[in-house]
Give the backbone structure.
Amino acid sequence: MQLTYSATQQAFREEVRAWLAENVPATALASYDTREGFEQHRAWERKLFDARLSMVMWPEHLGGRGCGLIEWLIFEEEYYGAGAPMRVNQNGQLLLGPTLMEFGTEQQRRDFLPRTASSEIMWAQAWSEPNAGSDMAAISSKAIRDGDHYVLNGQKTWSTRASFADMAFGLFRSDPASSRHHGLSYLMVPLDTPGVSIRPFKALNGKDAFAEIFFDDVRVPVANRIGDEGQGWHVAMATAGFERGLLLRSPARFQAPVRELVKLYRKHQDSADRDPAIREAVLKCWMDAEAYALGAYNTVGRLNAGEKIGAEASTNKIVWSELDLLIQETAMRILGPRAELRNEAPLLGDDQGWLEAFLFAQAGPIYAGTNEIQRNIIAERMLGLPK
């Protein structure tokens, strides 16, 4: 693997770095799990879009810049290195977007992708249901065909960003006589459609990160279906691959907090070194983050050579979710009892943000399919082990 950059790629890095240095807000935006913060982040996304930096790897006519995945990795390195705001529309930009590129019609791509790149449309996920979490094949929410519309009834839960989003994408059972993976269709639903009700519920940090979505005779155009009727499982598995694989969690997202973790350790080294295991954990975090980055470049090289990444996405998901946990748990150990203080507590000083990141990291091994499910996929599809 040749880790050298072309002159064009180096120039792109310098352009991104200069733009971020000039434009990253001096004061942190409010949490995007609040209405105020959500709209602040939407405005920031529009600013990225206007600079042609929102979705650098999308085609230009669809709101992107026409770059390759290497440029995307470069952008991510600079973005997280600059301490820029978290990306609020990842559901749409990094999950739905590639799905539409692969399975959508030309009309759907024209209608939705540029407005997703600019975050004019903010997206929520409508996957899980009360009785269908990691087992998405147990979905029971229905989409019954009525002419050129589907009529939706049912409930989705754990819908990320649904409290404030404009649209949602998800799976619905379009063949009521079907079961498991069969008879499902993949639909895009405007959340202001009559019959849609949204009930926010709070995450561990007390913010409205998730919501339940209720559908009561909701009419959605057939034109909003991605892929063929009844073939939603196949389309959804592609989306899940994007979520578990490279796109949703770039290496830079972990390299940046690891650098902060090293600073935290050095700041509190006298107390941290009372437990030699803490230093070992810091070293492991750094090595694992670098290994994940090298693995990502290897994956991009293979994709550029025409290879496909299938069940391997499950290994990726385990790596980044467990790395995130290790980073945050190590920070908690360094801070000791002070780790439980809220950001506004005077005793915490400038060691802020670790508690909220720790709480968020607990979800990593659960969302995008639990890590237990991922290990089953690896065992069966990569190693050929029996069920």
Notes: The radius of gyration is 21 Å. The CA atoms of residues 30 and 257 lie 19 Å apart.
